[in-house]
Amino acid sequence: MYQFINYSTTDGVTTITLNRPEVYNALNDEITYELQDAFKQAAKDDETRVVVFTGEGKAFCSGQDLKAASGVEKRSFAESLEKRYNPLIKRMREMPKPIICRLNGVAAGAGCSLALASDIIVAAEEAFLVEVFVNIGLVLDSGSSYFLPRLVGTAKAFELSTMGSRIYGKEAVELGIANKCVPLADLNKAVEEYTEYYKNAPTKAIGLMKKMLNKSGNSTLDEMLEYEKQCQEIAGSSSDYKEGVTAFLEKRKAAFTGK
Q: Residue 187 phi/psi, 5° resolution?
């Protein structure tokens, strides 16, 4: 189905794996388009309740494939972002299902942005994120200038982005970037604890909450109160709401279907 990524769905969990381990899963043109399509498919697939996003081999994603890009004459950075990276980041943030980043290794540059665009990051202690753009005289892109200050504050975001500092797993948790950090050998188990929860959760309500949290950073209290009202009306008409109330009254665990 895809050349540079692996895509599979099992028991409500869709796993999207960057599969260019020989170049630490660096991003060429093709892989970014494949990722756009993969997240589009996962969003539409009723069987998918949660997505795990990870990388094959030692790295999560080392960012833009500079070697591939160097062979392109008169490359337009703006065009590359407009067609490749920005639609991918938007697709991830607009996806009405949770995305768990299984951070198995380095996440650098645009790879760091992809991790930050996920909803939850479960990091190996050995893994690290780095806004490496400054090292080649470039600026943050692929959403990092949006995500980073919201997670760590403007002062720390300035330091991390202008100095290209590495943020290892434990520090990422302390800074509020990652949700959990475990030894690499325990990474799969830690990710599964999240997928077990989300594949059985009320997916529609979670998707609405994701939209609400996305919107809240640039909204007033009055705007969010109004938006909460709209979203609650939608959630209140869902099958999961009916099941949740019934299960509560019957004193049993709810069997949510995500609808």
A: -65, -45
